[in-house]
Design brief:
Number of strands: 20
Helix content: under 10%
Strand order of the largest sheet: 1-2-3-4
Shape: globular
Order of helices and strands: HEEEEEEHEEEEEEEEEEEEEE
Strand content: 35-45%
Largest sheet: 4 strands, antiparallel
Radius of gyration: 19 Å
Length: about 270
């Protein structure tokens, strides 16, 4: 195959002012629980995080970071790792970015900048809020300054919610256990494909519960030089069951899955009844 550069044509090559940015970490998600795709990009210090969103199911993209609440709060940070994930299992994808400067003594020449910087967690509060994303001001140990680079998630303690691993430049990695106590329900899926793609990389999953449909893509290589776990997590909020579940495998085959119970990890094998 071959590749073609279409970033400028599709609206994701520059920020809303038409300027190039640092552009380190990147992730994509259907964070509105529809087929409007969002692409988040972590940028250099004094450049706010970009959040490019399609108007409908197809490009072009428009940078909606300011409108969606990621503008002023991200301007000072130098962001590397960036991820969409459902931190509180309410059924809406939140966004975390981990930060850290390149220069040890940057504060001497730019008083507003620091080598070690806290991570920033943005809660997705949905369409009922003035802005979709709100900065979580009480983020626990995530508020400790780090010289962060990579970020990945996994359910390390098998309790259904997603924990975080953050690597640092010249310092030890950090593991943040998610101890949220919201009482929200969840479902996790492990996909097993066939032949040369046993991990089903590139598969899509659709889950409907209580009138809300969530969309996920199995793409583990995300953030900045990072790979998240292979199981896919859906937060269900207070919904107590799944109405419809299907997998679109990488070859385009759609497989309907009998709605399982909740608060568990299930394995879905391609073609299995």
């Amino acid at each position: 195959g071959s590749f073609e550069e279409i970033g400028a044509l599709e609206g994701i090559a520059f920020d809303r002012d038409g300027k190039a940015t640092g552009a380190m970490g990147i992730d994509s998600a259907y964070f509105r629980n529809n087929l409007e795709l969002g692409i988040g990009i972590g940028n250099f210090a004094n450049e706010m995080t970009s959040l490019f969103v399609t108007a409908g199911e197809q490009p072009p993209f428009a940078d909606e970071a300011v409108l969606l609440g990621l503008g002023p709060d991200t301007r000072l940070a130098l962001t590397f790792g960036l991820l969409f994930f459902d931190a509180d299992l309410d059924g809406r994808l939140d966004l975390i970015q981990v930060n850290g400067h390149l220069e040890h003594e940057i504060n001497k020449v730019q008083p507003s900048q620091h080598y070690a910087q806290p991570a920033q967690l943005f809660w997705n509060c949905g369409e009922s809020c003035r802005t979709a994303f709100r900065l979580v001001t009480d983020a626990g140990d995530l508020a400790q300054p780090m010289v962060a680079r990579g970020a990945a998630y996994a359910d390390i303690d098998a309790d259904g919610d997603l924990d975080l691993v953050v690597t640092q430049n010249g310092r030890a990695a950090k593991l943040f256990r998610n101890d949220q106590q919201g009482g929200n329900h969840w479902l996790r899926l492990r996909l097993i494909g066939d032949r040369g793609n046993r991990d089903a990389i590139g598969a899509g999953i659709e889950l409907s519960a209580g009138g809300v449909t969530q969309y996920r893509s199995l793409i583990p290589a995300r953030s900045y030089l990072s790979q998240v776990e292979l199981p896919v997590t859906f937060g269900l909020g207070q919904r107590t069951g799944v109405d419809k579940l299907s997998v679109v495998w990488p070859d385009g085959t759609r497989q309907q899955i009998r709605p399982p119970g909740i608060d568990r990890l299930i394995t879905v094998v391609k073609g299995a009844p």
